[in-house]
Q: What sequence folds into this?
């Protein structure tokens, strides 16, 4: 079960779900590091979602958690007139100023009737040198980073 949860294989939709998470990746990342941030600066990550029925009006959100399950960052957007089929949900962030480590992403899509929520696998890895050595664990709070979300049909 763990092996399938941490691969890029499609994650089956829950019974009756009208959308399902397919995979996610960091855009422009090397093939061996598709889920790893290696440097400071802008970050773009894409989530691929199959929508089973058109969404006239809905909502999408994503949340980043640290290794202890604390919320670090979240962002959401309204959805309007999303056709059925595979879609790429693109997240552009000015930067991700976090300590090196493992982080979990959770995404949810409201199709106008119900929420479908996914834990994204594999986890996000950050391998940038610590920005403030010796202070690890002393910071607490939510990351406030400029970001945007766009949804487009996946070609």
A:
């Amino acid at each position: 079960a763990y092996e399938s949860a941490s691969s890029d294989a499609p994650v089956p939709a829950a019974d009756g779900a009208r959308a399902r998470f397919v995979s996610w990746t960091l855009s422009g990342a090397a093939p061996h590091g598709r889920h790893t941030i290696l440097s400071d600066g802008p970050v773009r990550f894409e989530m691929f979602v199959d929508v089973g029925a058109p969404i006239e009006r809905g909502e999408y959100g994503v949340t980043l958690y640290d290794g202890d399950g604390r919320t670090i960052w979240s962002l959401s957007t309204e959805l309007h007139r999303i056709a059925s089929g595979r879609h790429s949900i693109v997240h552009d962030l000015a930067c991700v100023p976090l300590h090196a480590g493992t982080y979990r992403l959770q995404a949810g899509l409201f199709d106008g009737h119900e929420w479908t929520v996914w834990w994204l696998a594999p986890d996000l890895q950050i391998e940038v040198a610590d920005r403030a050595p010796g202070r690890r664990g002393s910071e607490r709070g939510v990351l406030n980073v400029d970001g945007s979300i766009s949804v487009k049909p996946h070609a």
